[in-house]
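Protocol step 4 of 5: obtain the predicted structure for the target chain.
Materials: sequence only (see below). No template structures provided, no constraints applied. The aim of this step is simply to have a reference model before the mutagenesis design in step 5. Sequence pasted as it appears in the construct record:
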Amino acid sequence: MKITEAKIKVRDLCEGYIDLKDDGVFTYYNADHKLTVRPMYQREFVYNDQQRRAVINSVYNGFPLNTMYWSKVSDSEYEVIDGQQRTISIGQYLENMYPIKIDGHEKYMRNLTETEQQRILDYEVTVYICEGTTEERLAWFKIINIAGVPLTNQELLNATYAGTFISDAKRYFSKRGCAAAQMSDGYVKANSIRQEYLEKALTWIAERDGITLEQYMALHQHDVDANELWLYFQEVISWAKRMFPDVPKKLTENQDWGTLYNKYHGHVYNTNELRETINKLVMDEDVTKQTGIIPYILSERTTHDEKYLSIRTFPEQMKRRMYERQGHKCAICGGEFTFEDMQGDHVVPWSKGGRTVEENCQMLCSRCNNDKRDR
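Step 4 output (structure tokens):
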């Protein structure tokens, strides 16, 4: 791969700056050059007001900005690999979209004196321009630290498998106020700009197909659209809403709904009974993990596994009292063991109404406790 260093003035960097929203951001735009600031595999603008002001303050005061990285697509076309946030921050300021504080006063670009404006326009940014195969450029993209906002794993995968599929998928999952966010409100808690909705949907559908998320993206990279993924996501969320309407967000927002759908959507449940069970478990002091209530009651048709609930264990002092009361012997086999080799157990299982109280505690050796669990 060939890498060339260039010094580019802000006036040239932001020439022809244009933000076409979903269709991309472009600049360095003249008869000789075109820079795509936000290629389809890049994240949307995520700098907050304080961060973008910091960029312009650095430019205004002549402080160095981190090196930017471009990929040379052709003799006249470039794409930003690293530097999107800084370039957009500069372009937006030049377009008078926000002010910075100078000498205690808020000033847009248009409020600056000509000398101050020239100071900004003449500022030089350092750019490394790389030429190479798509694989080389994307591999480089993966290892670059993105100006204080590191890429998520999903953003890196979007770069690796850029194409028609991911471009279409981002319409549904990766925009502010996207369709996925609106549909799953109250059932999925995620950040669309950081690709979290997309990552969830891909993880779930890949699990359905018995493959990894990355394998799914590789298989579908050149699909003409992402309709299969979007339809599947709608099915999952619609099922979740039918099964658990009017359930508190603290229980619904942090579920792996796709995993639950893949495993249980073919089973028949009584939604009224589900609601009653939820209300009972929410009030149960022995249930220490309330987000596990929904997986627990759905597992009724299979294992009804209490591990989802993290049932409260017996306190150390209580177990030691019971250990002494039992004469250091296992309540089942009668063998004598050290305290460390014994475990607190519910005489009446929690699932049958037994509580985590001293009257319901017994000390068992590890073998007897495991045998009891297996029955």
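Step 4 remarks: The radius of gyration is 29 Å. The chain is about 40% helix and 15% strand.
Proceed to step 5.
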